[in-house]
């Protein structure tokens, strides 16, 4: 499948799923007294420019296995709602600034409203899955519900592991030291939870359930999805460091600002000498500057006050240091220390480049993609040739292409 | 039922439900790679000192209708998990400082971890409801799932209405003016969503479903629950203004700091003269000071700098004003203005007292409680005398007692 056809397939699935999401939201809206504010915001992330990978994976798997479109669209829409709800909460948790080329929801409307919009999307997701009983039958409907229950559990667990690493990395004790022991297997386990389930395993599984696939086939497809998902996340980590705004839609280097332990960073720390490792640890331990200060709004004011002779230089530093104590989400820091600076992040970049950690991660992802390709080829036993199977194959190649 | 027996009944139900919650969390933990941090935090709110109203309502309704304890405990535990997940997210949304006599979860562990812990509790809640199929049968299990789906939708909708009022109240345009039109019916509708469903309607409904109650009985019980819930929330609003720390466990006057439109405040604005009304509007429009500044940590530093001659007075004001722009959850404010002060909140208190708005709200709640009592008495047709029915009756009286 050429890139144009691949894109057309993605777009078509995305359009189908967005129509279904609009219908789910409108049904709820019709029953409620709200003035529409909540409902508009629930559609905000889903309607932003996106590839629509998950809906397409779900639909293509169902149809490649001989299932009908009507059997899968509603569940695919629910998965996309869940995905976007997680994105809203993840963006709050990671203090991300940009999502799909626009400010994150909590930056535009505040954390309170963003938390509630995410919850609202999760809340809307249960009823359509119950309605599945009437359309795809009791057995598949319950299997789909179980798959979604598993997905949400695995996702929050993966997210918890990563948040816990960030939290411990900001400490200065034995708990933080233990992070030096983290290996590639720990990273893979975290990513399986954080990314693979909701982006790959469950969309593919739910598509297969809608097509009435056997347990053995479900197992085989899940394993393909898991391997593909890990490779995809590593590519994502690479893009986070190497991409350009515009083409990627997220902020660049955000993982480093957030102090995330990616495969790249774990490799860099393993290969660095003790002094460099200590240096990296100190930088990672610094909190990310709060959103307000990053665009240096307050800093500009303080500088102006210093220039006008209304504030001493040491007073300026004391104020910035005090504000630096407000790290993640307004939590009061435990130690008096400054935030990460542009220079800190540049230094991490330099160390990562020096250790060849990007090449290492590229090779790691490449091995995973070859594995995924072989696994999908093996699935051809029960998946006859079709445009849908072709889409799945091309998608693996597309993930390859993201690497280059 | 005397208060001691009522308390014993509440405690017993709470203990049963907490055991079940521990089992649900432990089952998930056994399957996951996490080090327990996430799981400890999921139990944090549930294990804090609480009355356990919802579990008791659920269990008592089931048993008063002749249902078995085993049929309802798991669902009651799930409702309690949902309730505590909502509390965590509500505390973030309302920027609350204290919950059940201790700092809120996001104050202790930061917003990112608190958002994820709430999500994790929601994620854990689906599987036990699916397991219900095996224990209480397919029909009741699906009815319970539908009841929970409705509950979550209504709750986020109610929360959205309130957040929207707070948001619009902080603006200075026609959208804010429209808030002056809000009447008691709007408040009741908001409270039905925000409180009644997850605290009263669904616990009672799920208990009745577990006992195999008919649709007609479910309708009657839901209406009783709705009426009781509205009265309960008004009492809660009164306690928020009138209570003392220690006996209540939340911060006092928090609703005023947050700019919430309670029945009390709506009455006060209706009765106030135009000048007072404008004054109230201006105070409500001010953002709540961020948690950091409230204990005046930064203010103390700035004052010290001014005293040492390192900062001018006007520079100090400019810094505070700039920081005041960061309102709810770090969102950048639209106008340059200061935060609510202690004096502002005292002024609101005074106006509320002057208009007799507390007495009005007390009378409103009392009418609702009398209605609830009558409705429960009518339910005696299908609810034979038992300790469980007696508990429900005593509970209505207990809500009365909170009033005094």
Any overview of this molecule?
The structure is a homodimer of 404-residue chains. Chain A has 404 residues and is mostly helical. The first copy, chain A, is built from 19 helices and two strands. Chain A has helices at 3-31, 37-47, 53-64, 69-93, 105-109, 111-124, 126-136, 138-169, 174-177, 184-210, 215-242, 254-258, 263-271, 274-285, 297-307, 313-324, 342-354, 357-378, 387-403, and strands at 98-99, 102-103. A two-stranded antiparallel ribbon of chain A has the order 1-2. In chain A, helix 4 (69-93) runs antiparallel to helix 6, helix 4 packs antiparallel against helix 7 and helix 4 (69-93) packs antiparallel against helix 10. The longest helix of chain A has 32 residues, at 138-169. The model of chain A is unreliable at 244-250, 292-296 and 325-336 (pLDDT under 50). Chains A and B meet through helix 4, helix 5, helix 6, helix 7 and helix 8 of A and helix 4, helix 5, helix 6, helix 7 and helix 14 of B.
Oligomer: homodimer
Number of alpha- plus pi-helical segments of chain A: 19
**Cα-based radius of gyration of chain A, to the nearest Å:** 23 Å
Helix fraction of chain A, binned, reads over 70%
Task: State the secondary-structure class of chain A.
Answer: mainly alpha
Report the β-strand fraction of chain A as a percent range: under 5%
Order of helix and strand elements from N to C terminus of chain A: HHHHEEHHHHHHHHHHHHHHH
Count of beta strands of chain A = 2
Question: Which strand order do you get reading across the main beta sheet of chain A?
Answer: 1-2
Low-pLDDT stretches of chain A: 244-250, 292-296, 325-336
